[in-house]
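Consider the tokenized backbone below.
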């Protein structure tokens, strides 16, 4: 039996590459001297597409793959895939939820601790020799205990963050989603209202047209001068220019960010701020978690071609 042909535009985790080579005919487009020529010659053969990172799967690419059945995306976020265009063409899109929830939630709590307790600044103080020459690092104004947390996007990861935060005696003040969930936390239909009632806002929603700049100047002003913003969702959800202004003017106290609007390009203005903790999008970046994500990409493709169903579809 002929093996299904899977296209991989850019190199992915070894688990994905090796799994696809074992089960399918894999077109390694990133190795092609002329990718356009490969797509022109082989595009009609492609039935599956494995993708991740910053590679864009748009209508133009989909049109070059007329027999495509499935796009298997590496990551819980799928903002680089035009899901609407895929749906219009009858193409299923999958992501990799569940297997990275704990890792990303851990990162969110790490950012919260670093931001609230100024742990990164304290470490730099020690490394610069200032402890020995200037004395103890100044007492931090903020502490974790008793903070009021609002969650923008209470999905699997948001719920995992809430459970961890409660262990630090943080109050889960509420959440803002498109719709109410059956959870023991208050639902806020208004993000501004929630920001006004909390002092810590964690962003967990994916990036797309409907979430772009949800966290804007109005939300940041509502969060207030003791407010802390944590973003482990997508950089486009936060108006970065408004955030920089809010941090400079102390409209909010601090921010802890793992994601940015134009990755990997982080504005120098943000880098220069001493009240911003910045990580290079490492939320799920451990070897065990990335292996599990890669395996789910392969499993989605395998199940689709063997049984006609996807394990983790986002549009079906």
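A designed sequence for it:
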């Amino acid at each position: 039996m002929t093996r299904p042909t899977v296209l991989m535009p850019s190199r992915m985790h070894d688990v994905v590459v090796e799994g696809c080579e074992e089960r399918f005919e894999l077109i390694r487009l990133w190795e092609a001297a002329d990718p356009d020529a490969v797509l022109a010659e082989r595009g009609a053969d492609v039935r599956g597409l494995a993708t991740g990172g910053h590679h864009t799967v748009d209508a133009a690419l989909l049109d070059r793959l007329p027999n495509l059945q499935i796009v298997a995306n590496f990551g819980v976020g799928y903002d680089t895939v035009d899901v609407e265009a895929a749906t219009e063409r009858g193409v299923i899109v999958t992501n990799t939820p569940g297997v990275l929830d704990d890792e990303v939630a851990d990162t969110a709590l790490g950012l919260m601790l670093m931001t609230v307790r100024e742990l990164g600044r304290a470490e730099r103080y020690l490394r610069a020799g200032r402890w020995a020459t200037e004395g103890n690092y100044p007492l931090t104004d903020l502490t974790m205990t008793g903070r009021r947390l609002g969650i923008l996007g209470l999905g699997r990861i948001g719920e995992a963050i809430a459970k961890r935060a409660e262990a630090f005696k943080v109050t889960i003040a509420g959440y803002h989603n498109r719709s109410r969930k059956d959870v023991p936390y208050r639902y806020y239909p208004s993000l501004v209202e929630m920001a006004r009632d909390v002092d810590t806002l964690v962003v967990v929603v994916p990036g797309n047209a409907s979430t772009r700049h949800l966290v804007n100047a109005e939300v940041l002003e509502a969060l207030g001068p003791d407010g802390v913003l944590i973003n482990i969702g997508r950089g486009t959800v936060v108006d970065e220019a408004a955030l920089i202004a809010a941090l400079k003017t102390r409209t909010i106290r601090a921010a802890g960010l793992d994601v940015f609007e134009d990755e990997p390009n982080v504005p120098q203005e943000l880098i220069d701020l001493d009240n911003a903790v910045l990580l290079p999008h490492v939320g799920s970046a451990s070897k065990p978690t990335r292996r599990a994500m890669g395996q789910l990409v392969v499993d989605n493709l395998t199940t689709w071609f063997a049984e006609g169903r996807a394990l983790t579809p986002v549009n079906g």
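The longest strand covers residues 46-52.
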